[in-house]
Amino acid sequence: MVGEESHGYWVILLTFVAAYVLAVLPLPQWLLWGRPEWLALMLIYWTIALPHKVGIVTGLVLGVGLDVLEGAVLGQNAFALVVVALLSLILYQRLRVYGLWQQTGVVFVLIGINQLICQWVQNLEGLGARSLFFLLPAVSSALLWPVVLHTLRGLRRYYRVS
Amino acid sequence: MLLAALAVVILIMADLRFNRMETIRSLLDTIATPVYWLADLPTRLGDWSEVHLQSRSQLLEDNERLLQENLVLQGRSLQMSSLQAENVRLRALLNSAALLRDDVLVAELIGISPDPVRHQLVLNKGRSDGVFVGQPLIDAAGLMGQVVEVSAENSRALLITDVTHSIPVQVNRNGVRAIAEGTGALGTLEIHHVSATTDIQRGDLLVSSGLGGRFPVGYPVAVVSDIERDPGQAFARILAIPSAALDRSRHVLLVFTADSGEEG
Q1: Which residue among A24, A56, A75 sits closest to B114, beta carbon to beta carbon?
Q2: What is the pLDDT of residue B96?
Q3: Interface residues from chain B to A (CB-CB < 8 Å)
Q4: What is the CATH classification number for the domain harbouring B115?
Q5: What pLDDT, in 10s, does the model give residues B60-88?
């Protein structure tokens, strides 16, 4: 049992590292605004799947990591991910019974909130965007939700993460 | 939840208002290096295959071309040395400080900021190589930006096009001074507060003026691309295109100016 549990943590950690790499992967200029929020997507999945293991503290730690990677104000993504984790924790029972498209809708809103918070902190710094392009990741992330869901669910079942 | 919210607010305040996070940040940056390394891997593999899988004829062709280029450049530098000597003599006549040649350190790009509003690069040289905060960054074509964060093995540089960046420049043709500010768009700088009657034309080269003491004198910064003189406005609206290949350079040069030792 103990062995299996540590095995489980390992898979979760690996998916988050993958999310970090995807988050800083160099992209062509025209794709830059639409980069999906990989870390938030994976955080939402793991919170829904394992709410007793992954939650607000995970969001906080992951967010600080992302801030360091992005060179953002320390706490910007942490703030956003804490809120996303909290909302996922509140919604997880409903989300589990939702159909795929309903889930996609909720993910769109969650990532949208994530983007709004990031935008708000950037505004404090004087870096605010002048268009609504900063909401584009919400669309791309929502579109990727089915892929993320099936991949992570497959991983979770294969490695029996619990 | 409350605790997390409190932690986040304290973090944001500490970083944004009081700049208390420098040491923690540089420590965390060191840990972040492997992530950048992984993200950079596909590009490096591409480079590697390009280097190792080139045909012999291609290499010979390149070699031939580079030899010719080298010859031309050497020819130019011959003239250069005499001009430099002349420049030093003239400066001595004018009682001004001699221009010393700057030392450079070649750094490789290992990451770019994933956030489109932040124009930052991550470089593979850090404190152990002598990199310091405020160090100018150039490429083959012009000035790129300056170092804003240094950790043990890598550093983070702010590009001149970032919204928060400004650089003192002067028109190479007549010495008119101005300040070029980043616009947040990678191909555009904006020159503010130049009066409508100032002698500045489209195509003028802007070089760093050295005022402010951060950037060395005389590196090309941008070329004026657009001037709008509205009689109703006190200042002309001037846009310029950065000379450096800000989104293409993979190898960049960190400049050690003659007097940068004390700063670092």
Answers
A1: A24
A2: 61
A3: 1, 4-5, 7-12, 14-16, 21, 24-25, 28-29, 31-32, 35-36, 38-40, 42-43, 111-118, 120, 122, 149, 156, 163-164, 184, 186, 247
A4: 2.40.10.340
A5: 998 999 999 988 888 878 777 778 888 87
Cβ distance of A127 and B164 shorter than 8 Å: yes
CATH of the domain at B192: 2.40.10.350
The total of structural domains in chain A comes to 1
**Residues B156 and B258 reside in one and the same domain:** yes
Contact, B165 vs B150, CB < 8 A? no
CB contact under 8 A, B32 and A68: yes
Instruction: Identify whether the C-beta of residue B105 lies closer than 8 Å to the C-beta of residue B131.
Output: yes
The amino acid at residue A80 is A
The reported pTM is: 0.79
Nearest CA to B169 out of B180, B161, B160, B184 is that of B180
Which residues does A45 contact at the CB level (< 8 Å), separation at least 6? A148, A149, A152, A153
Please measure the distance between the N-terminal and C-terminal CA atoms of chain A and give it in whole angstroms: 10
SS (H, E, C) A73-88: CCCHHHHHHHHHHHHH
pLDDT in tens, A40-69: 999 999 999 999 989 899 999 999 999 988
Round to whole Å and give the CA distance between B113 and A140: 19
Of B112, B250, B118, B184, the closest CA to residue A28 belongs to B112
Is B243 in contact with B220 (CB distance < 8 Å)? yes
- Residue A82 carries which side chain, given as an amino acid letter? V
Residue pair A136/A108 in contact (Cβ under 8 Å)? The answer is no
pLDDT digits (tens, 9 = 90+) for A18-35: 999 999 888 877 788 889
Say if B31 falls within a structural domain.
yes
Q: Do residue B256 and residue B151 come from a single domain?
A: yes
pLDDT band at B55 (very low <50, low <70, confident <90, very high): confident
